[in-house]
Design goal:
By secondary structure, this protein is of the alpha+beta class. The protein contains 7 helices and 4 strands.
């Protein structure tokens, strides 16, 4: 994903505010690369990539199918909208499959293997802790941390569902979870 801009226009200044968050989110990605081009300095590149007289900011994305011309991104100009777009278009790999490890990062696999060893009550306690962490980080902050928190929550919830038959009385785990969700909804977490 490339941000083409000039130094002065307010729209470019707004895009430059969230661009570092987007770049940080993908800093270790092997599939998504981000870049920012100052068209006042890189006139030849901008002349080659952008239509004459176009306004700024302009977002373009490049894939194996559309190189070297790229395609214009015309949706909302925010970090969250751009990340959502990348998931929808397959630029970001599919969600981790907990059962087969397909599309899972090394970090996710390590966490899956850790949670796999937890008993159902440990899973419920782990979910309570993760929901609390996610609530604290959801109001801004590092997008990668937010995504990792949601991935961890999804993994724990998977194992809670998978392990519900391991307890004599499912109320042991579901009673615990009902209290956790009630606390979460009432703002107690």
């Amino acid at each position: 994903m490339v941000l083409y801009c000039e130094h002065g226009p307010p729209a470019c200044q707004n895009a430059n505010i969230f661009y570092p968050d987007l770049a940080n989110y993908f800093w270790n990605s092997s599939r998504v690369f981000t870049s920012s081009v100052n068209c006042q300095l890189e006139t030849a590149l901008c002349a080659d990539q952008l239509p004459q007289g176009s306004g700024f900011p302009i977002w373009k994305y490049y894939t194996a199918e559309n190189k070297p011309s790229g395609e214009y991104y015309t949706e909302e100009s925010s970090a969250q909208a751009l990340v959502s777009f990348m998931y929808r278009t397959g630029m970001i790999p599919n969600e981790c499959d907990i059962a087969t490890y397909d599309h899972c990062s090394e970090r996710e696999i390590l966490f899956i293997n850790k949670v796999r060893l937890w008993d159902p009550i440990q899973c419920a306690k782990g979910l309570k802790k993760q929901l609390s962490i996610n609530a604290r980080t959801s109001n801004g902050g590092d997008m990668r941390q937010q995504e990792w928190g949601l991935a961890k929550q999804r993994i724990i919830e998977h194992f809670i569902e998978a392990k519900k038959d391991q307890v004599e009385d499912p109320k042991d785990i579901y009673g615990n979870l009902d209290r956790l969700y009630d606390e979460r909804l009432s703002g107690g977490l």
